[in-house]
Structures are given as structure tokens and as C-alpha cells.
Inverse folding.
């Protein structure tokens, strides 16, 4: 009887402190948020509220023109965070270029590369994009955009070598891609269903 009282007394306190009893059993922890390479579910309900960062202005370093994610409502946006010092980022950007070629450069697929390194500037990023022949949007991520990506999705979006990418679908819903380098063929399998929605 005494052990039952002790368990009943301690259990609420343990749960309130965030301690989960199953963690003592060695149960696996849930993985970081990712999106499966499954096609989108056409029966899913689109999000009503768009994230606030969709409204923030970004400046394309190659053209000097400003844009927001809201400007591409109804299109599919493939967004990656990057830094110029990151060799994985160059390889991933080359795969993005190949993806566009495989799809025939569709007008409704918008690629955006956001430089999240606070020590890099627009002039250097413009030269970087030009040197490698990348022809989509390259922008320095304003602090509020970088903060939103880290807070809403994962701090890993501020870690360029992990090749963090997300897709914003035609409804404005955000879908995470698995971390790590993704070939153009893998990206094609992921992106194409969103384009055919």
C-alpha cells in the first residue's frame, strides 16, 4: 500500500518536471522533423495562417530587386539555407540547377538560396552566384528571417553543411526535407508531386 501511495505522489511531480518514465526504458527518441519523399496528400487541409516571415522582404543580390515568399503564392518554392564557405552548399546548389534542367525550368518552381552567415555580405554573395552560374534568387537572410527559420523549423536551418531545405507548396504550407545532400533525382521525386498539385 505504501509503494502505491509513493508512486501516486511522485508521478504527477515527475510528469510536471518533464521527466518521462518511458525514457528510462531506453525507448527511442522521436527523430528531428523531416518530410518523407511521399507525394503530398491532396486531401490535407491547407494552413490558414501563413508564417510571419513570408512577409519579410528579401533582396535578390543578383538583380537588386526585393521579394517575399508571399509574392510566390500559388507557386512551389524550394528554399535552402547556405553559406559561401560551405562546400556542401555548392554541391547542393549544383543539384538544384540540375533539378531545374530535368524539369525543363518551369516558371512555377522558384528556388531561393538564403545565406545565413552573418559575416557574409550581398556583394560577395552576388559574385559567388555569378561565379558558379546560379540563376535563381540568392539573398542574405535578415536576422528576423534566420531567427524564424531556426525557431519555427529547427536550429539546423542555421547549419549550412547539413544542406537544410524546405518546400513551400502552392497553398503556402511548409514541408521539411531530410537533412543531408540530396541528388537532383531525389529532389525531382520530392518536388514533382507538388508541381502537379
Amino acid at each position: 500500500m505504501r509503494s502505491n501511495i509513493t508512486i501516486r505522489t511522485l508521478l504527477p511531480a515527475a510528469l510536471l518536471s518533464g521527466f518521462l518514465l518511458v525514457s528510462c526504458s531506453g525507448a527511442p527518441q522521436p527523430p528531428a522533423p523531416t518530410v518523407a519523399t511521399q507525394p503530398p496528400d491532396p486531401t490535407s487541409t491547407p494552413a490558414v495562417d501563413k508564417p510571419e516571415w513570408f512577409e519579410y522582404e528579401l533582396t535578390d543580390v543578383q538583380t537588386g530587386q526585393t521579394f517575399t515568399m508571399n509574392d510566390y503564392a500559388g507557386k512551389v518554392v524550394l528554399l535552402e539555407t547556405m553559406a559561401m564557405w560551405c562546400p556542401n552548399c555548392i554541391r547542393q546548389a549544383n543539384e538544384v540547377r540540375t533539378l531545374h534542367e530535368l524539369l525543363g525550368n518551369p516558371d512555377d518552381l522558384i528556388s531561393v538560396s538564403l545565406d545565413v552567415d552573418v559575416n557574409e555580405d550581398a556583394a560577395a554573395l552576388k559574385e559567388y552566384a555569378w561565379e558558379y552560374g546560379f540563376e535563381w534568387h540568392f539573398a542574405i537572410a535578415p536576422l528576423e528571417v534566420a531567427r524564424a527559420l531556426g525557431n519555427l523549423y529547427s536550429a539546423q536551418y542555421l547549419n549550412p553543411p547539413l544542406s537544410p531545405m524546405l518546400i513551400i507548396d502552392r497553398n503556402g504550407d511548409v514541408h521539411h526535407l531530410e537533412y543531408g545532400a540530396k541528388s537532383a533525382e531525389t529532389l525531382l521525386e520530392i518536388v514533382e508531386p507538388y508541381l502537379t498539385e
Summary: The helical segments are 2-16, 87-102, 122-132, 143-152, 184-195. Residues 1-40, 42-47 have pLDDT under 50 and may be disordered. Residues 87-102 form the longest helix (16 residues). The chain has one domain: 52-195.
